[in-house]
Design brief:
homopentamer; 296 residues; 8-stranded parallel β-barrel; 12 helices; 8 strands
């Protein structure tokens, strides 16, 4: 396993450290790793994501699942946080997702703000999430909007998790959104822009069409994710699950990520797009992997 | 009837609960259901909407109609509220519609603010209304504008009713504004973004051209509206009447909506685009339906 | 009965009218009169006021009593409103008492702010209360503090009820706090300073030691309260009960007040410093009096 | 044991509930009770309080003691929080004490602000503390200063613990600062003014010189603390230890407090004014008592 | 020598650490110790302080002296900083003294603000100074004023040096301003209130008239200064020279201070109230002492 920095080596303010300690050491396995349950797909993709397992359309079901499955936090939008988190306040960390959008309009990728860091503080959240569309032609608006979030998060001691997502026509032309090149660049961008934690997709080194020369070589998946974690340097890294795929492949991705020094996983559809007990069984398998990679 | 959540299960602040209690339990039937009279068509469509029944061009006539018809509230723009609500202040709840637009310019759908939550407080309103054009290419501006309204409504304890309307070229290309897909997504979007009440059109599951695979199946109208209410989860749901159509069809839509667990109806043109006594007779029929679906 | 002005004759803004209409016509007898239950004695006098009827120390008991007794509103401080009003939000109007003090320090009477008009809006209150110590050497601070409250109440359409209480050494030297002179002056002061409703003690025309010559004559109680209501002019007037005394005397005071054109009563200790059913019986007697004096 | 309200019965916002849940159910015994270690005596009394056990002059020693002793939180001033909490951030809840003073000037009791609620948020604190000197002639300044703290705490979802301390010449003249009368009034005052938790001294019903008639009777210590908890109603109550006294007496006070329905204890000097292992032994005895009074 | 905490053990923000590093490691001896030249006596005492050595009335002379003498910084008021620091900007660290007063009015000690932290940033200062009169009856105003300075210094990453001076009638009655008790309490107060560096007078353990029992014992000067440094804990401590006295006594105080773990000295009149070369000679003797106590 590659070395993972401890919380006291990240340049964190007291409040950020307190909240991250809570997430990483007082929830989930409590060993410095984390697995988060993201649940903003109802906004990002619409209710169609719940057709595979209709009970998952009920936020109460999903928050309870996160609790039962020993997750380190649940990432939701302001509306669900206002209506559903009170019942579980303090029992599981809340990551308030600050921006989001519907998938409908065919415009340059940009995720508008729907909540503020102060909302997160008010709701007792332990972190905020922000989707940054790395490579989007709307980069200027995105960076400007992000700047305010970063400043507020700093002022209020709130950890900032950046969903660092390569997107847009230019990304599509250079290997696509989950090429090693794009993911590596996204991890570094979040680090350069001050994220405390960065969430990336697992890199695919075989997607090389249009990527810069440096990435147009033979890399194993392990080499790629190793490099991505290095690019994030003192920004802790989470690997996201994305669309549902086979369990064996997901578990292998999880293992490689942890081996690379990632802090953890953020798996949504792969967890709740299946029947309840099967969700818990899969979460348990993920936790088994994390248990092998405690922070020093 | 599907279960409808009580006011104490919605995560409401004291002020929002007080005002919604007033609307739902101290006006109209007082049984937890509601029927609202919207009257912003003079701005949205222009006076042409009053040609069918010229007296309805007079706001005083319409507010009085709402009172006589036992409505739970009247939804109007700031100008009419300033000029006409004083006469009826406190007799019927005011829903101040905060944004609105003319139908004239052919631009990306966006409804600009014409009033503020503080205006609503000052006028003694019991709720505010905001039109969100789900799927519009102007999504970024819309969400940003909405964010401020939501924050103000939260700070001042004012219930927020979102007119969640699918609109724009991309919606047109994916089944249209009243497809099951679009309405379902709109209901969920309002819930994710923190609406207290969402107003949607009745879904049409037969409009399937261009919709995602999940919606390209056989669904009954009842199945569709059931799903939409579920997607709104703890956001109370109102079904809007839209353009005037036959009474029998409207009453059937109303019945199916209530059966699905909707909180009520918001019917304008179907009510006041006809002669006075006929308006009241129709309102009475709607109330008869609501009377069969009291909150527990 | 002396004539009492209607709500449309008071120069009220839309929001103030809406909220007062709610209090006067949609709660209690709904006839334009009002009886309020004040419950801030726990702060003003301490828990000793509850020794006569210990259950009254529980705010929940008292709010419920107000509901059962058909009161038009409950007047409480911010802390109790935050903790107890949610359960009854909208069922009975809330009058948020904005200032208050303990009776302990022997200083010039001044009641510091503990809440704001915006708190009242946020909590869904229908009015705010402010204690003005007319005649206190701390007049300057009091008036300055009141100015802000009045401006905020105006801006937010919130009715302002002034507890207009003569207090201080100079009042003691001029007939005392419930002389006809002091009460009459207090009623006028509230009217001059922009109260929507004024709460006064019942005047005692026999307390003449040190009062100005004009008040050092023979006046009946009825003449005195008639004059006080006239002094308040378009400020609606409530007569407060003060310390508990015999029921017959209280009822006679109530009758004379209504005869004089008062809008109603605000009786606390006389109501809840007795056993539950006896409280309701007494409230019923007060309501019987109010029923004889409907607004035109 | 008298019943103690659950966190879901206190009218708490989501953020306050999340943070109190953390304190009461994820630290200490995790059973809804709490024991806090206050450590602001270096400011309130000066370093002389550390002469009994010099290592206790080192904030690092005391925070570590709180951790070892299984305390639910440590209450310190901004300076120590800035310098020492980072090392333990998230391991033990921080209660940021917002005001404080030296004991030197002989002036009307008033505790000036040294920090803000936003400081507390920034540092990852789970509550703020404010000393209110009930009965002080400086009441007006104190209430005004407190108002801002309460509003900020509300806005940011931060639990507010009020050190409700009777003080001043008028208190001295009416039974003194720990009479049943004074403590009972202080508990109620904090509740009326919106504290989430109130910290009081243990009441002494035998101190009757100058107290109001209601308190000039025979009451047992148990009857007195029972009444004080009732006066606090939905404000959770902590009993403070005050100056060091015999262990047996302290433990008996602790037991009676819990029996009355108090939520817990806040003991400083009685804990750290003794040798390290003896401190832990005493803390263990206190925890044994709390273990017998879990929240339902 | 008692241990002195390193810069990385003080809970400093990045900006505060950068500026303190500059002062302590890139000026003076560069060994983690410091000697400052304070020069605000022209305001505090008036020009009478310059009669002993008239050239010292010229700020240019004194700043140059600080440079020649290898001081780590010069502490001056805003007016002198504006007019004289430009010439030496960057050559020697500037400590902008933010408050100050004349000695003329016989009022409760309080030092009003004459500059802001933002002035200090604008002028390129490396620290700000604030005089806190511990024990003054004006404590409330002083703490409130200090709170703003502390918050600004935090926000802008500016080290805050507190001149922690016991003053006022109550101090005079309890051993006086340089009793061990008063100085010890002053050091702790600065630490509790968030100073980065505290400047105190050398304690006199023999001044025991009226001090609390704990201080009414036999203590050596070394024991006293040892305790004071401990009370300051992670707040670095400077010992001030005060009025001019014999060199041997001064040097002994300096040695004892450094032995106790002080970070350095802040000597003004003892330096510049003598002829130029003699000033440098004395400064050299002080530096010789500091050279023996490098930070680890």
């Amino acid at each position: 396993m590659k070395s993972r920095p401890g919380l006291d080596q990240l340049g964190l303010s007291t409040g950020k450290k307190a909240r991250l300690h809570r997430i990483l050491y007082r929830h989930g396995l409590g060993n410095g790793t984390a697995i988060f349950l993201p649940y903003d797909q109802g906004l990002e993709h619409g209710p169609r994501d719940f057709f595979a397992n209709p009970p998952a359309g009920d936020p109460n079901y999903v928050i309870k699942l996160a609790l039962e499955g020993g997750f380190n936090g649940i990432a939701i939008q302001i509306g669900l946080a206002e209506k559903f988190y009170w019942d579980y306040a303090g029992e599981i960390p809340l990551v308030l997702k600050l921006n989001g959008k519907t998938e409908i309009p065919a415009i340059d990728p940009l995720s508008p703000l729907n909540g503020t860091v102060e909302d997160a503080v008010r709701l007792g959240a332990d972190a905020v999430g922000y989707t940054l569309y790395v490579g989007s032609p709307a980069q200027e608006h995105d960076f400007r909007q992000y700047l305010q979030v970063r400043e507020d998060a700093l002022r209020l001691g709130m950890p900032l998790i950046v969903w660092s997502y390569p997107r847009g026509a230019d990304i599509d032309a250079k290997g696509g959104k989950d090429s090693f090149y794009a993911v590596d660049y996204a991890a570094r961008t979040a680090s350069e822009l001050g994220a405390d934690i960065v969430k990336v997709n697992f890199p695919h080194p075989d997607k090389q069409s249009g990527v810069p020369a440096e990435y147009a070589s033979e890399f194993s998946a392990q080499q790629a994710i190793d490099a991505v974690v290095r690019s994030a340097n003192r920004t802790l890294l989470l690997v996201s699950g994305g669309e549902r795929m086979g369990d064996a492949a997901m578990l292998e991705k999880a293992r490689e990520s942890m081996e690379a020094g990632a802090t953890g996983l953020i798996f949504g559809r792969n967890v709740w797009q299946r029947e309840h007990d099967d969700s818990l069984r899969f979460a348990c398998q993920l936790r088994d992997i994390l248990a092998k990679y405690p922070s020093p």
